[in-house]
Amino acid sequence: MDFYFLLFLAGLVGGLISGLLGVGGGIVYILILPIAFQFIGIPDQEIAQFTIANSLFGTFFAGLFATYSHFRQGEFYPRQILLISVSSIIAGLLSLYFIVNTPFYSRDVFNIVVIFLLIAMLVSTLSNAKKQASFQETTKRTKRLLTFTGLSAGLTASLTGLGGGIVIIPFLNQGFKMGVKKAKTISLGVITITSLAMVMFNLFQEPMKTIDVNHSGYILFQVAGPLIVGTLLTARWGVKLSRKMKASSVSYLFSSFIVLVIIKKLMELL
User: Fold this and answer.
1) Which Gene Ontology cellular component annotation is one that this UniProt entry carries (predicted)?
2) How far apart are CA 134 and CA 216, in angstroms?
């Protein structure tokens, strides 16, 4: 009971962060899922694969519910979402097939990738947080840059289970001079579509090791279920809270969660 309650609590926090920051709940899920998989006896050699797959499963529901909340408020940008999603799905599925779901992608490799990526995102986010108060949004858009954003997001999501929002938001905000809150809304839409595609892929993959618990590919419903229930309860509150916060405050809050994940992953490596 305590085990599933902790997963439920992680879902509550993940859903809130998803709606608030637009990055999906993966930044919370990848902290708790490795612990859960160790507890139920998943082989250490495949903890990275199961963590990524089930984090993306939870992220799909977090993104879906938060996106629906934005849609009801008229905050929806289908053209940008679709353009980014197409390249994101392609990059994500190729990465899963050729890199992630292979013996090469061990738990240590997974943690190293997460740490280096998050450090880069942390530096970028903090360097631009102070600029948000005087930020001027422009209308600069190119399909090429949107495609590049999607490729980067898909690769990030598949390698880390974070959903891709940690790449999409900085790219749109800094590269496209798009306001953080609009970038966050687009990020949630892309995360929803991309995560769904990768979840469907992982449902039909065969784990490299024999697993003694019920599973569908790399998805464990008994683990992801409590996360998803918690996520659905709080995602819309995160969206409401984000409308009341300054863009710079959102950036600093985002940075604090990045630091938390970096510390946790460093501890796992050491």
Assistant:
1) plasma membrane
2) 49
Name residue 216's beta-bridge partners.
219
Alpha-carbon radius of gyration of the chain: 17
* Dist CA 109 CA 165 (whole Å): 21
The three state secondary structure string of 182-209 is: HHHHHHHHHHHHHHHHHHHHHHCCCCCC
Q: Each residue of 189-203: b (16+ CB within 10 Å) or e?
A: bbbbbbbbbbbebbe
From residue 50, give the alpha-carbon distance in Å to each of 95, 109, 235: 15, 14, 23
Q: b/e for 22-39, b at 16 or more Cβ within 10 A?
A: bbbbbbbbbbbbbebbee
Burial group, residue 16, by CB count within 10 angstroms (0-12, 13-18, 19+): buried
Amino acid identity, position 215: H
Rounded to two decimals, the pTM is: 0.91
Q: How far is residue 129's CA from residue 249's CA, in Å, rounded to a whole number?
A: 8
**Whole-number Å distance between alpha carbons of 26 and 56:** 7
The ranges assigned to domains in the chain are 2-269
**Average pLDDT per consecutive 10 residues, the chain (270 residues; last block may be shorter):** 84 87 84 90 94 95 87 87 95 97 95 92 76 57 82 96 86 80 89 96 93 91 92 86 78 83 88
Residue 122 has, within 13 A of its CA and on its CB side, a CA count of 15
